[in-house]
């Protein structure tokens, strides 16, 4: 059985963050370990606040997990500030963990800033087998938001220089509706199929934890991304309208 460590934020709706990651890993039949870096206050209508978890607690939790489990993959989500980013970077380097997938979370769909330390976040990229930015995140890292498939490919090449082994550019919001994977030599392109009329909350979280899970199961990176894409498409098609705002992603196998 594969064990996937998730280091991310807590979202009480469970549509995004740690619980969405854990649901994903669970329905894919593997074991998820979860360490919270921040506790957010939010519902389907948006994020109201975010409270950073004390570094001492994160450290203690990680120490226990590292000494008890043999970890097969890591998914990094929301890291609220530079102190947390740097601390997680140190820990990951010390433990030489396999298959690190970083979802470089910066802002919620409705605008709330979830990470206030994007420069520090970039320094973690060399640890990653894959980073999964969306177009808004690319704008923060590169200063320009890609507007076409060609620009997405250019952005992936530029982001590669920050040191991650591979980049998945998520272009679901573009007319071309494609996702682009660049591993330093080849491009792989997936059409984004079904869309929902309302935004779906937590899609980036579910996708990146599904990729980490498939990598932990031993799939190659393009295979893992391809299977995770199918999985997130189902989670979007089956998204739940349970609150007054965005739909909630609904991972199921
Ligand atoms: N809350 C947490 C804890 C998250 O990790 C994320 C995204 O990664 C969000 C909220 C934002 O989700 P959305 O982009 O669907 O608004």
UniProtKB/TrEMBL annotation:
Gene Ontology molecular-function annotations: ATP binding; hydroxymethylpyrimidine kinase activity; phosphomethylpyrimidine kinase activity
**What GO cellular component term, any one, is given?**
cytosol
**What pathway annotation does it carry?**
Cofactor biosynthesis; thiamine diphosphate biosynthesis
E.C. designation(s)? 2.7.1.49
* Domain of life assignment: Bacteria
Q: Which UniProt keywords apply?
A: ATP-binding, Kinase, Nucleotide-binding, Transferase
- Please tell me whether the keyword Lyase is annotated for this protein: no
Plastid among keywords: no
- What Gene Ontology biological process does one annotation of this record name? thiamine biosynthetic process
Q: What is this protein called?
A: hydroxymethylpyrimidine kinase
């Amino acid at each position: 059985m594969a064990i996937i460590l998730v280091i991310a934020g807590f979202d009480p709706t469970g549509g995004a963050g740690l619980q969405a990651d854990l649901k994903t890993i669970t329905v894919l039949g593997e074991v998820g370990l979860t360490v919270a870096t921040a506790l957010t206050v939010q519902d389907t209508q948006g994020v109201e606040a975010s409270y950073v978890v004390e570094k001492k607690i994160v450290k203690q939790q990680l120490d226990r997990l590292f000494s008890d489990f043999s970890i097969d993959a890591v998914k990094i989500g929301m890291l609220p500030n530079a102190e947390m980013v740097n601390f997680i970077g140190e820990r990951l380097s010390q433990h030489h963990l396999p298959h690190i997938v970083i979802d470089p979370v910066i802002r919620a769909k409705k605008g709330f800033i979830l990470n206030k330390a994007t420069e520090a976040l970039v320094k973690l990229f060399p640890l990653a087998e894959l980073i999964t930015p969306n177009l808004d995140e690319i704008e923060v890292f590169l200063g320009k938001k890609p507007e076409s498939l060609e620009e997405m490919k250019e952005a992936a090449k530029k982001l590669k220089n920050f040191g991650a082994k591979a980049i998945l550019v998520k272009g679901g919001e573009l007319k071309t509706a494609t996702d682009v994977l660049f591993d330093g030599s080849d491009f792989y392109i997936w059409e984004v199929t079904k869309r929902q009329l309302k935004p779906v909350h937590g899609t980036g979280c579910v996708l990146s934890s599904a990729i980490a899970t498939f990598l932990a199961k031993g799939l190659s990176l393009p295979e893992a991304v391809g299977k995770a894409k199918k999985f997130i498409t189902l989670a979007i098609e089956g998204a739940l309208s349970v609150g007054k705002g965005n739909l909630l992603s609904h991972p199921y196998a």
